[in-house]
């Protein structure tokens, strides 16, 4: 069967919804196709935090000094200068506008009195959605799409882009779950928003041998690089494909990201089996991941207490994960350090020594060992939590080359007519390493740009 829309959006994560909503609001007929039985992609299962300099919560908290320039600099530096500066500039300049769009137009609720400061950032600037996950974003984006009557075709997998004799992309060939072929014609454009390739082990190892099946992934099963492959088949250029990010603190059994462990942003420390700290807890994800893999057994323990938990109330926000980790014996809560250390057979004398140093550094506001940029927090009072964790493949920085209009470029740097892309499948915004809280800013900002462009 064949259907025709002005704009066909492939993928229903944050980028796809943003593009579809903008295009529809500009008067175009729009369809979203999604290969899984449910919408949301990685956006749904992420923490959902979003960097925006000079945001309203910073004002509420009296945080001054942040700026678009500072955010731009942090992102460029965090990506080892491998990102396209003009696109990073757009993201930095539009970050606040994107956040306000989510808040005011999409009715996403952000906490009004808390922010995260992810590794590599000069300020606390990441807005936190209620519930501390992307579910708040996706449910509200989905509601907006429903209100606008944008059809969402679930269980429909895009397989191939259709182009005409001039090389213009004019539609998508797809399969439904019974392998029946469907054709989606696009009068104006196809927008690819299919996410990264973290769940595709073969594709990971093709571009970087390190990230083979030894690594689990935090990603949705749908994150298999489909859009990158389809675009490449019509001549799209690829960039930075070898840069694959592991999230340092994930479940050793499933590879799932640990959001409970967001206590790290409020002062939880990382120790090894010997009971010693080995890295600055707010360093970049790649640096922490490498450091963890170099420890005994290639894992870490994260340690915190209730004073730290009280800052963002992470335990309450991620109760289901907490219960699962306790059940799986990957987390222990104990009144004393001895008891907690015994559970995991951690060297108690070293651990006591580590904790007394942390307490001293917290008092002196000077972490003499690892220069913790957020300032350490006292661990004098129990109860203590110790959680076992490993790095897991999380975000693929590389992908399609887009320009300021989100047009997909070929090897000669020319736009492929009719083809646009936004979100994790693009490879020009995060450089070699994505800073925490930057994915949501990226996907919403460029998703919206794509939606407006295709409606031009
Ligand atoms: P982003 O953060 O860039 O928006 P997400 O991972 O949140 O990316 O969303 C990407 C979505 O695209 C997922 O829901 C995924 O299942 C979907 N998707 C991936 N490949 C295809 C495909 N071939 N056809 C349709 N949908 C796809």
Characterise this structure:
It is built from 15 helices and 18 strands. It is an alpha+beta fold and 456 residues long. Strands 1, 2, 6, 7, 8, 9, 17 and 18 form an eight-stranded mixed sheet that branches. The model has no long low-confidence stretch (mean pLDDT 97). It binds adenosine-5'-diphosphate (ADP).
Task: Provide the gyration radius in Å.
Answer: 22 Å
Q: Alpha-carbon distance between the termini?
A: 28 Å
Uncertain regions: pLDDT < 50 for 5+ in a row?
A: none
Total DSSP E strands: 18
Ligand list: adenosine-5'-diphosphate
Largest beta-sheet characterization = 8 strands, mixed
Please tell me the overall pLDDT. Answer: 97
Beta-strand residue percentage: 15-25%
Number of helices: 15
Please give the share of residues in helix. 25-40%
Structural class: alpha+beta
| Shape summary | elongated
Key words describing this protein structure:
five-stranded antiparallel beta sheet; single chain; 18 strands; 456 residues; binds adenosine-5'-diphosphate; elongated; alpha+beta
Secondary structure blueprint with pairings:
Elements: E1 2-10, H1 14-25, E2 30-33, H2 41-45, E3 50-51, H3 56-61, H4 68-78, H5 85-104, E4 110-116, E5 126-129, H6 135-147, E6 152-153, E7 157-163, E8 169-175, E9 181-192, H7 201-207, H8 226-233, E10 238-239, E11 244-250, E12 269-271, H9 285-293, E13 300-305, H10 306-312, H11 314-317, H12 319-327, E14 331-334, H13 337-344, H14 348-364, E15 384-396, E16 399-400, E17 407-409, E18 415-421, H15 438-454
Parallel strand pairs: 1-2, 1-9, 2-6, 9-18
Antiparallel strand pairs: 3-5, 4-5, 7-8, 8-9, 10-16, 11-15, 12-13, 13-15, 14-15, 17-18
Helix pairs in contact: 1-6, 1-15, 4-5, 5-15
The structure holds adenosine-5'-diphosphate.
Adenosine-5'-diphosphate (ADP) is lined by residues 10-16, 33-36, 40-43, 157-158, 193-195, 220, 222-223, 226, 423-424, 443.
């Amino acid at each position: 069967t064949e259907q025709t829309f002005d704009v066909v959006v492939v993928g229903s994560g944050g980028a796809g919804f943003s593009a579809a909503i903008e295009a529809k609001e500009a008067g175009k007929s729009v369809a979203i196709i999604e290969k899984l039985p449910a919408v949301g992609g990685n956006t749904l299962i992420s923490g959902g935090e979003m960097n925006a300099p000079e945001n309203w919560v910073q004002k509420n908290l009296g945080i001054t000094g942040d700026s678009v320039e500072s955010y731009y600099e942090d992102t460029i530096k965090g990506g080892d200068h491998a990102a396209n500066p003009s696109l990073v500039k757009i993201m930095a300049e539009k970050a606040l506008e994107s956040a306000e769009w989510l808040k005011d137009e999409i009715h996403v609720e952000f906490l009004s009195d808390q922010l995260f400061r992810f590794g590599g950032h000069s300020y606390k600037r990441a807005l936190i959605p209620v519930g501390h996950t992307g579910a708040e974003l996706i449910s509200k984006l989905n509601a907006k799409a429903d209100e606008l009557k944008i059809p969402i075709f679930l269980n429909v997998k895009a397989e191939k882009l259709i182009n005409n004799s001039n090389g213009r992309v004019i539609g998508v060939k797809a399969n439904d779950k019974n392998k029946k072929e469907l054709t989606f014609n696009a009068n104006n454009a196809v927008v690819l928003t299919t996410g990264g390739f973290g769940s595709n082990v073969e594709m990971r190892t093709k571009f970087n041998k390190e990230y083979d099946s030894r690594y689990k992934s935090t990603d949705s099963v749908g994150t298999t690089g489909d859009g990158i492959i389809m675009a490449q088949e019509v001549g799209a250029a690829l960039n930075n494909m070898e840069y694959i990010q592991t999230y340092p603190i994930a479940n050793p059994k499933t590879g799932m990201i640990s959001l409970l462990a967001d206590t790290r942003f409020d002062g939880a420390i990382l120790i090894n089996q010997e009971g010693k700290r080995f890295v600055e807890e707010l360093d970049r994800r790649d640096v922490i991941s490498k450091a963890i893999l170099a420890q005994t057994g290639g894992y870490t323990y994260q340690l915190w207490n209730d004073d730290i938990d009280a800052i963002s109330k992470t335990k309450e926000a991620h109760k289901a994960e907490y219960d699962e980790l306790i059940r799986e014996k990957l987390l222990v809560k104990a009144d004393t350090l001895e008891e907690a250390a015994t559970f995991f057979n951690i060297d108690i004398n070293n651990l006591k020594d580590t904790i007394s140093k942390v307490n001293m550094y917290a008092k002196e506001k000077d972490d003499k060992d690892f220069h913790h940029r957020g300032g350490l927090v006292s661990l004098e009072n129990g109860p203590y939590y110790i959680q076992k964790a490993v790095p897991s493949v999380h975000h693929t920085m590389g992908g399609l080359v887009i320009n300021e209009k989100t047009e997909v470029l070929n090897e000669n740097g020319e736009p492929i007519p009719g083809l646009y892309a936004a979100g994790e499948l693009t490879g020009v915004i995060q450089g070699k390493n994505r800073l925490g809280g930057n994915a949501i800013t990226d996907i919403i900002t460029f998703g919206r740009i794509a939606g407006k462009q295709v409606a031009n």
